[in-house]
Amino acid sequence: MASTLVAAPERENYLNNEYGISSWLFTTDHKRIALLYLVTITFFFFIGGFFALLIRLELLTPEGDLVLADTYNKLFTMHGQVMIFFFLIPAVPAVLGNFLIPIMIGAKDLAFPRINLLSWYLLVIGGCFMTYTILSGGVDTGWTFYTPLSTHFLDTHVIAAALAIFIAGFSSILTGLNFIVTIHRMRAPGMTWSRLPLFVWANYATAIIQVLGTPVLAISLMLVALERIFHLGIFDPRLGGDPLLFQHLFWFYSHPAVYIMILPGMGVISEIVTCFSHKRIFGYQFMALALIAIAVLGFLVWAHHMFVAGISLYAAMVFSLLSYFVAVPSAIKVFNWTATMFKGSITYSTPMLYAFGFIGLFTMGGMTGLFVAALGIDVHVTDTYFVVAHFHYIMVGGMVMAYMGGLHFWWPKLSGRMYPENWGRLAALIIFIGFNLTFFPQFVLGWLGMPRRYWQYSPEFQVLNVLSTAGATILAVGYLLPMVYFLWSMRYGKPASDNPWGAAGLEWMISSPPTTFNFDQTPTVTWEAYNYDELQEAPVER
Amino acid sequence: MSAHIASKKLYITVWASLIVLTVLTAAVSYLELGPFNIVLALVIATSKMLLVALFFMGIKYISDKMTIAVIVAGLFWLFILLALSMTDYASRGWV
Amino acid sequence: MSDSTPAVVEHNPDLRHHFANMEQQTETAVMGMWVFLITEIMFFGGMFAGYVIYRHLYYSAWLEGSQRMDFWWGTINTVVLLCSSLTMALAVRATQLGHRKSTVTLLIITILFGLAFLGIKGIEYWGHIVTEHQFPGPGFRFAGPNTSQVEIFFSFYFAMTGFHALHMIIGVALVSFIAYYAWKGRYGAHYYTPVENTGLYWHFVDIVWIYLYPLFYLISHVHRK
User: Fold this and answer.
1) pLDDT tens for residues C67-85?
2) Percent helix, strand and coil across chain C, each to the nearest 5
3) Suppose A427 and one of A108, A115, A481, C109 were both cysteines; which one would form an S-S bond, judging by CB atoms 3.0 to 4.6 Å apart?
4) CA pair distance B81, A75, nearest whole angstrom
5) Are residues B42 and B71 part of one domain?
6) How far apart are CA A201 and CA A91, in angstroms?
7) Which chain C residue lies closest to A510 (C-alpha atoms)?
8) Own/partner long-range contacts of C117-124 (Cβ < 8 Å, ≥24 apart)
């Protein structure tokens, strides 16, 4: 069947029903908006990646010999800002979530399609401010904008960067608002909460965080801007202002923000693991509740970023204890994914390779999170490369792998084409190797005492830094490959059937790519999620 | 939410209560009550808030539990921000 | 899989295609507005948190600062906003009943109350900034103990009432749009969600002021102005 498939005459779908730039720029179709986001965040991923490469190049040698110290400060600041606010936070929700959530719940679109388009425009406008910041000399506050450095002691483009992130944050808030209302109100008949794919639950939990947390970031940035412009004294120690107040407000958002980044990835992994084990998820209720628990508990731990900043010891103990609690639901998820695979019929397709990578690397990153949550250890490793490695294991080893896995898994649905499977597997392998070579040495470096955000370092750290940079180069190759073959596949890839993976879920019951309104008629759902025991075996692409 | 239409009389009664509470809080502020000044002021403010929220905004007539849950969650989250930050500031002086 | 258009059904011209019926559309829109208001609670909440913390740290400076507030203008402004909430609620009610002329009139009165609030705020700001030099920064003047901490008090005053005033301006603009479309006959018993949602926003901004008023104007039992 598959081998004799010739390019079928194109049926009408959301990609070809209208042409021209205004059909894209003024679209309200959630699927087209998802692709607009895909282009935007890919662009920013490469900009953030470019800064990372420069950082790693500088760190090849112990001396500061590639860039100036102030330039180095700008590089790590903007690497963080671009990657977090213009890539990681929108990535899964705004690309995959936008595309899939209405389809997964049996709806024709999100609750507020025009606000969805506005969300994208806001990200782009924020991106313009960010680009302006970069091109006009950059900002060097660190992505954390700590006061009073950012309010009183720097004359770089702090306000432009703050505005860029404020606007991007507004984009995130509106996406979260849209998802919450959509999932509550637009589910098809029979699609009860307990039949929802975990991907939907994950984006719902994420949306809660986006809506409740991001506004506090907004006010933090606004107050920094006001302090710079109007010389208010809220964070000025000379007046009795407390710089820690800024940190409390900033981290109240920025800690939950890391859950905004990881929860959608966890949702993707649940979809991939079930499909490529051809088995129901183990412990559906616990998986759904764990997502909500992470979202809620994630709001209670923020001051673990401030253990050595000057908060009271008693507050530090409270936040340390709460930080241990938040690890529990994450661990439950890892156990349940593993249990899902047990006695499953495993296929090692590219998405599944990324899922394996995620589970292993997220676990390592998560366990090192427990290390830094311990007060005594944190005093030793805070502001060293140990922390840098910890969060990159979660964000890159976890989140980016989940995103890549999701892109590959749903690529046939988005584009109607299959990507070349062997290249996909190769890229996944290169990314895994490159990632570990880049970031494992950083755990060791941090433990040995190399500080983060330093432009120079002590010569005994050089070997590990060289390994890390070598790894970064390999990682870069790994990320470039999918760019190339995804684009290739849009023209030359094998046309995809409706359900090339034999997966469960409403999105696999409609055409690849879908029509504009997704369903000819609103479906009535009578089956449970992940009903693999009822589905036929033998899909096309195994 | 959409169906219920309140009477003019109800709205005007609520408005009158709000004005009375405002006059009350302004008058009471002249008294020296120590720490209870702020307590009383916040109790009155919260009563006014509830009147506006329940009647003008119509929360009393919302049948949809999820919308109520959304509102309660928002208020609770603000409480989390205030309470947990205060664990730091309140205990800084402790040895 | 050709595009099968369902048989044409008589429906409300304001029903958007991705909704099954008007009830779903209305409830969705109202829920969306409430979720947005939650974000606003957290936005102002950050400043309220800062206020609470500094009040805990610098109570006497907070007393001093509060005594310098315009007690009478603040109280009058509170009454003005409460009246505007009444007219806004009545305007929504008039739309639900299909009374176009009352709707427009009430919305216009709401706008006028809003502008009055902003005008009074302008008078207060002029007094604080120009006459009394109480705007934080190099030009700040305060004769009395705890000058720096009082400067922080005024930082909060201007930040919080400033953001509130910004939200009032946006509110006035929104109500103006709604008033125009109401005058054009756009709303009625069959479709009044935009008016209802604008009302929710307006009442929310009023609630913020309901808290700002005692927190800034009524801290000290001494009212100098």
Assistant:
1) 999 999 999 999 999 999 9
2) 75, 0, 25
3) A481
4) 32
5) no
6) 17
7) C1
8) C117/C77, C117/C80, C117/C81, C117/C84, C117/C168, C118/C165, C118/C168, C118/C169, C118/C172, C120/C73, C120/C76, C120/C77, C120/C80, C121/C77, C121/C161, C121/C165, C121/C168, C123/C73, C124/C70, C124/C73, C124/C74
Is B19 near chain A, with CB under 8 Å? no
Distance CA C154, CA C124 (A): 13
The confidence score (pLDDT) of residue C1 equals 38
- Give tens-digit pLDDT for A423-474: 999 999 999 999 999 999 999 999 999 999 999 999 999 999 999 999 999 9
Overall fold of domain A27-509: Cytochrome C Oxidase; Chain A (1.20.210)
Q: Test B52 with C203 for CB contact under 8 angstroms.
A: yes
Nearest CB to C159; choose among A12, A223, A241: A223
Q: How many helices (H) and strands (E) does chain C have?
A: 6, 0
| Alpha carbon separation from A337 to A266, A296, A361, A507 (Å, rounded) | 10, 22, 14, 22
CA A228 to chain centre: 31
Do residues C58 and C153 lie in contact, with contact meaning Cβ atoms separated by under 8 Å? yes
Name, in order, each residue with C-beta under 8 angstroms of A400's C-beta and a sequence gap of 6 or more: A88
- As a whole number of angstroms, the distance between CA A55 and CA A73 comes to 10
Q: Which of A214, A239, A515 sits opposite C148 (nearest CB)?
A: A239
Helical segments of A231-312, H only? 243-277, 284-297
Can you give the residue ranges of every domain in chain A?
Answer: 27-509
Tokens of C114: 């809003």
Q: Which amino acid is at C67?
A: Q
pLDDT at A4 > cutoff 50: no
Using CA atoms, how far apart are residues A141 and A35, in angstroms rounded to an integer? 32
Please state the rounded mean pLDDT for residues C29-53. 94
Torsion angle (degrees, nearest 10) of CA A450, A451, A452, A455: -90
Residues of C (57-96) whose Cβ lies below 8 Å from A: 57-58
Residue of C nearest to B40 (CA): C214
Are B84 and A300 a contacting pair at CB < 8 A? yes
Give A384's strand partners. Answer: A451
Q: Chain B residue with minimal CA distance to C33?
A: B67
